[in-house]
Specification:
This protein is α/β, with parallel strands linked by helices. Helix content is 30%, strand content 22%. The longest helix is centred in the middle third of the chain and has 17 residues.
Length: 383
């Protein structure tokens, strides 16, 4: 049985956030005194350098509230996170965390140093290279942002742990696991490894920032901030994600990290194994939350090895010339090598026969200058 706390919280006020987080930790029976003299990792979602108001990253005030609570019990705190492409130092500064890190003297780990996490019971990926700093901690406090995702439909507690891998290694995983179900299976292998693969087991707490989440074409700047008014807390990532998805009315069947996560048995195996405390879900449910429009989702997994099928039936990312600054972040992050420099059109050139529709380019475009264009025969899917 997993206990999840749903706390109503409508603003990023330090006192209110700390009260809600403390209440939630109490409801899931987490003993804060266990943090004494322990090394604690704080793992926010720092996808890219972005102002907090855009809801791309974990809000700095939620990070501050968690860090201050932990700081009361231990000073051995380390921030471990790996943005998809951008340097960590500039990302910490742009997202509003730099002052907090300095004030509380939080160590920032070198994410480029890796070690291999081994988990023999993983379905496919039994050896995964992650940032070495995770091997040295006792607790991992995961702070995901509730957001939509153009590839996995939703990104939350399980998906945020993808940031345990350094930099562009994450992009390369999209080539190894090009379909939605394959990628979600990889995420669950990683989650299982994090739970069971360390010689020195780690204790996990997940504290989700759902005060303001993201809807639409997330998880990057193309998505839109959405007031949700919640903080969700638990020690089981799959259970927490199940509550979050139901809170905003997304289709659980489209979130394979949940449906397949139940089958893995790393924690809860069904919704019946989840006990919700705090606010009733019915009282806080969001009824107008907008999912991503990407056709990669919906449980329909097209044969991504067929470029013809993919180009006819699946949306493709298309840069807008008026907003593109030719920074080429999209080209640098593309795992398939499908993007090259601009020609006379003054936008990066896409080879859509190579494009695997992972939408990493949309995630990392600082100008939100990439739209989704429907496939020529996509209307048949609705028929």
């Amino acid at each position: 049985m997993a206990v999840i706390s749903l706390q109503k919280c409508t603003e990023y006020d330090n006192r209110i956030l700390k009260d809600k987080i403390m209440a939630g930790l109490g409801q899931i029976n987490f003993d804060l005194t266990g943090l004494k003299n322990k090394r604690v990792c704080l793992k926010p979602n720092l996808l890219m350098p972005s102002n907090p108001e855009r809801a791309v990253t974990t809000h700095p005030e939620l990070f501050r509230a968690v860090a201050e609570i932990v700081h009361d019990y231990t000073r051995d705190i380390v921030l471990i996170e790996s943005p998809n492409f951008f340097p960590l130092k500039s990302t910490i500064k742009k997202t509003g965390l730099a002052g907090i890190v300095n004030d509380l003297e939080i160590e920032v780990a070198d994410i480029t140093v890796t070690d291999t996490l081994r988990f023999s019971l993983a379905h496919r990926y039994k050896n995964i290279d992650i940032s070495k700093a995770f091997f040295d901690v006792d607790y991992i406090i995961n702070m995901p942002k509730l957001k939509t995702h153009g590839f996995t439909h939703y990104t939350g507690a399980v998906k945020n742990l993808f940031g345990t891998m350094p930099g562009l290694a994450k992009s390369r995983m999209h080539m190894r696991a090009p379909s939605q179900i394959e990628f979600c299976e990889f995420l669950l292998d990683l989650y299982g490894g994090l739970l069971n693969g360390f010689e020195k087991p780690k204790k996990f707490i997940h504290i989700m920032d759902a005060v303001v989440g993201m809807e639409g074409e997330g998880p990057g700047p193309s998505g839109k901030p959405k007031n949700i008014g919640a903080v969700i807390i638990g020690d089981d990532a799959v259970a927490l994600d199940y509550i979050a998805v139901n809170l905003v009315g997304l289709n659980v069947k489209k979130v394979f990290t949940i449906t397949e996560g139940f089958k893995r048995g790393y924690g809860v195996t069904s919704p019946d194994d989840i006990q919700l405390r705090g606010e009733p879900l019915e009282d806080m449910r969001i009824t107008d939350f907008k999912a991503s429009r990407s056709a990669v989702m919906g449980g329909i997994i097209w044969p991504l090895t067929s470029p013809t099928i993919k180009n006819l039936f699946v949306e493709k990312p298309v840069p807008r010339a008026d907003d593109c600054t030719l920074c080429y972040n999209c080209m640098k992050v593309c795992p398939a090598g499908a993007i090259t420099k601009a020609d006379e059109a003054k936008i990066p050139r896409y080879n859509y026969r190579k494009c695997i529709r992972c939408f990493c380019c949309m995630e990392t475009c600082p100008e939100a200058a990439i739209d989704l264009k429907k496939g020529a025969l996509q209307w048949l899917m609705r028929t």
